[in-house]
């Protein structure tokens, strides 16, 4: 009998064995859980910051507009630029009056033009593989019928009780899942001005935060839980380990759920699931990770931003490629307005990225880091953006197609899939492309994605030289970056 049991254990699929493991409320146990593979394969996701802050939708350029309430009440600012700190308070007084409370915006957050199926269709066309919606930001307003939210503030403070009179989160979840995309929720652990949080954080965690998180998981069955606002307390105070052990052992999504690393003060890049960066550049880790940023400098819609504040499609494509070559994902944010409309420029950018992915997605999805992420030209590789604050998207242009004098550029980005390597170039090569540190094998072929014919190549001492054909305008398969596929290389 013992031999039979041992044999059955050997024959059991790994996934079933993983399901039998019980995770303890310790970081050693929790961190041993692998990040489900669908996340690392997905590479590109859509972040959505949408809430009460979408009504005023204003901040100085370079500042997060979704922090409107905090800027208003604290009379302080942080971002990319120099500020007096009173800009939002001054704007609020001018536009709404000195006695207009932030909480009165709830009546104006009507989302009357919200069409969840249209949003989901746009996300699908963008080439994204997953979506993360702000279920609740630091202001505490919930996009689903959370009784805890309204109870805590003593007023209608969720989308069903206030303005929209609708389960916005539930409706979008249904629409997104119909398209086959994964659906996740950003959730702020702390709330700036929640009376219970300010009076008794332990009671807040037990009677407000935990019921909300478990309600999200049990009722909507997300693919991602994306906590934030963790820096105010330790993971012990947040009871993060207790929640994650429940999530991995007993929740309805215990085998498929993905989480990030924002579970307590100083927990980032140490504990949880995949690692996160935010408006940063040049990151790389030895485990799944994700860079999040807006198309502009704000996550929430900022009506103060102009066209020059938005990243170009070329910037977004090169940024995505740079991140994926380093083994990461890009979570690109959009900020709908209070009516439920995604600003046209944001729609356009998503469609432009999607059009590029239609041709080059093979070099992005399901890939992994190769032995080298990039091939550099000669010159100084240490270009750094000027000024403090968040790193704008233009850094990737300086590192590729618009370098400052004397600085090197990333000539080629690499990704891999089995024995195949993808070489993604920011400029269309003229006549030839030299790819260094590549060792071809018997049967190696070189093609360009979007052009279904093999290219001639020859072996060099330290790589290969590819003969790049002259293409007419109609023959060029895409814009912004071009992919050469090398099969069966060492």
TrEMBL record:
Record-listed E.C. numbers: 3.2.1.51
Domain Alpha-L-fucosidase C-terminal: 410-487
Regions crossing the membrane: none
InterPro entries with a match to the protein in the record: FUC_metazoa-typ, Fucosidase_C, GH, Glyco_hydro_29, Glyco_hydro_29_N, Glyco_hydro_b
Cleaved signal peptide residues: 1-18
Family matches, as SMART domains: Alpha_L_fucos (SM00812)
Glycoside hydrolase family 29 N-terminal domain boundaries: 16-362
Key words of the record: Glycosidase, Hydrolase, Signal
Keyword Signal in record: yes
Gene3D superfamilies in alphabetical order: Glycosidases (3.20.20.80), Golgi alpha-mannosidase II (2.60.40.1180)
Class of the enzyme per the UniProt entry, highest EC level: hydrolase
PANTHER family for the chain: ALPHA-L-FUCOSIDASE, ALPHA-L-FUCOSIDASE-RELATED
Family: Belongs to the glycosyl hydrolase 29 family.
Function summary: Alpha-L-fucosidase is responsible for hydrolyzing the alpha-1,6-linked fucose joined to the reducing-end N-acetylglucosamine of the carbohydrate moieties of glycoproteins.
Protein name: alpha-L-fucosidase
Organism: Chitinophaga defluvii
